[in-house]
Design brief:
The chain has 13 helices and eleven strands. With about 350 residues, the protein is of the alpha/beta class. The protein binds nicotinamide-adenine-dinucleotide and zinc ion (ZN).
Length: about 350
């Protein structure tokens, strides 16, 4: 079992990482919540796999009810947000009751948003079940839904009371969902934890320790930049080019980030910021985990990325590795790009 404490401006919370934790959620939740009712929000797929187990544990100490929405990104809508709130109110939820988000990043984001807004805020606990949710979205307090054709455009910062991670749940993920999480996990190693990268080489298996090390990278930047104003930007390594190819070629987000990292490493090397030795180890690790390693030329995408949202007053901030496990925020102007790279 591993434990991580996230320290924020107004409160701290624990992340528990334990194989088999789903059988003990009541024990953990009892340490932070002593009212009588718990409301679980989950999706139809996770319901079939894990809801009974979680209810069985929680029923030892609480009255438990639940709301289910269809799985997938298509559920991160205002309509499903309203549906969840309506169902919870029908079930007579009160402002001091606890919400438990059981599922992947979609359930985490929409449940967190419900928890931030219903009764102007309810306590909630995250039980992330996808690899992506466990090593990434479970930490940082960003919640929300997609709206007006834009991802995560309605939302709030809302920190959970606790996060409970059972790495065993990763075993039931299908291969592409697993890869999706691996892309971001390798990114965490690349920007902030060389030992994590090394361990991925030698023991290609996701353990409690791997999730712990990955979360530690995100924890560090979240603690110094709770509201995503500066340092958290480093988590966007691989995302600038990743976003440019994600929709164009139909990659899953983590797959696009994997390819985007390779493109950013090449660009960093050309600018003299990134050590040349970074490319091969990252390429090799991506291959070990069967991530796509198509090599697109970053120069073909510079124009696209220059006009996306990160273009503030003629400059764009890229995240480059300096060496494995370390990165910098690098501001570059359009003029410099033309002079140095094109
Ligand atoms: N809040 C944040 O900081 C943050 C960070 C990264 C991503 N996100 C958001 O997270 C979402 C993506 O997360 P995701 O990839 O977990 O998506 P998801 O919640 O749609 O889960 C992916 C699929 O896996 C299924 N699933 C989940 N756990 C499973 C398990 N243990 N076994 C089998 N199937 C399982 C789900 O039912 C779903 O079909 C996006 O909406 C993204 O915007 C948020
Ligand atoms: Zn991402």
């Amino acid at each position: 079992m591993r434990e991580l404490v996230v320290n924020l401006s107004d409160h701290s919370y624990k992340i528990i990482i334990e194989n088999g934790a789903l059988d003990n959620v009541n024990t953990y939740i009892k340490t932070i919540y002593n009212n009588d009712k718990v409301f679980i929000i989950t999706d139809d797929k996770v319901k079939d796999l894990y809801l009974d187990k979680v209810i069985k544990s929680l029923e030892k100490d609480y009255i438990v009810d639940y709301v289910v929405i269809p799985n997938g990104e298509a559920s991160k809508t205002l309509e499903k947000y309203a549906y969840i709130c309506e169902e919870l109110l029908k079930k007579d939820i009160r402002r001091n009751n606890l919400i438990v988000a059981l599922g992947g990043g979609v359930i985490g984001d929409i449940s967190g948003f419900v928890a931030s807004s219903l009764f102007r805020g309810l306590p909630y606990v995250g039980i992330p079940t996808s690899l992506l949710a466990q090593m990434d979205s479970s930490i940082g307090g960003k919640t929300g839904i997609d709206f007006y054709g834009r991802k995560n455009i309605l939302g709030a910062f809302k920190q959970p009371k606790m996060v409970i991670i059972d790495p065993n749940t990763i075993n039931t993920l299908d291969e592409r969902e697993f890869n999706n999480g691996m892309g971001e996990l390798i990114k965490h190693g690349a920007i902030g934890n060389k030992e994590l990268l090394d361990s991925l080489y030698s023991h290609p298996k996701i353990t409690e320790d791997v999730i712990y090390e990955s979360l530690t990278v995100k924890k560090k930047v979240v603690e110094i930049d709770e509201f995503d104003l500066k340092e958290r930007m480093t988590l966007n390594f691989g995302h600038t080019f990743g976003h440019a190819i994600e929709l164009k070629y139909g990659y899953k987000h983590g797959e696009a980030v994997a390819i985007g990292m390779l493109m950013a490493i090449k660009m960093g090397i050309d600018l003299g910021v990134t050590d040349k030795s970074c490319y091969k180890p990252i390429l090799d690790i991506l291959k070990i985990y069967n991530l796509p390693v198509v090599e697109y030329d970053y120069k073909d995408y510079l124009k696209d990325v220059f006009y996306d949202k990160k273009n503030i007053a003629g400059t764009i901030s890229f995240i480059f590795l300096t060496k494995l496990g370390e990165c910098v925020i690098y501001k570059i102007t359009e003029k410099e790009i033309k002079e140095k790279l094109l």
